[in-house]
Amino acid sequence: MNSNNEFYVIFDTNVLYQNYDSRADFTKFSFNPVYAEIVNKIEQLDIYEKVVIMLPIVVWNEMRRQILEAHDKQLEEYKKRNNKKIFPEIKTEYQEKFNYVEYLDKIISEYEAELEKSMIKVIELPLVSNAKFDRIIKRAFDKMPPFEGKDSKADKGFKDALLWESILEFMERHGRLMLFCLPMIVFLIEMKLNVSFMSYFLRRAL
Q1: Cα-flanking dihedrals φ and ψ of residue 171, to 5°?
Q2: CB 15 within 8 A of CB 163
Q3: How confident is the model at residue 148 (pLDDT cuts 50, 70, 90)?
Q4: Is the whole model's pTM more than 0.85, yes or no?
């Protein structure tokens, strides 16, 4: 068996992303409460020295884009809705020149700095190297998962492939054992990538 005692927990966007549909606070940035629950459980079990939390750059970028899209959509809806009703007790001031992109990048950087203070080691999973893009291109041309051309959009398939190849490349370089949060396992099953992953995983683990 692999003698390395470190386990890597990889988080998918579905685990970390906050839903801004029902309640939205665009002045702050944080992960979904599930992240804190998992971190707390690792600390309670006193295994934090053996666990490394890995946050893929693909996931960071996707979350940033989703927040920007949700912000722009809900800001427009808010302005339309509130322009229809005026009360003397309520004064709303809209900052026309406010740069939310810069603001979001700032609060994300501050949140990343806070994560580094955790008892558990937190690292980023980098994007794939240029050489590995060939595998993604081959998947696309061969219409292999996740490029089957079904209901999912092409850009989603590309991001899924980026994340998948990033994980594979990390394992090829480091031979680490990994744990996946449930949405990641579901992702592997839905994308039909679990067979190739498990065959590679078993070769590295034995």
Answers
A1: -65, -35
A2: no
A3: low
A4: no
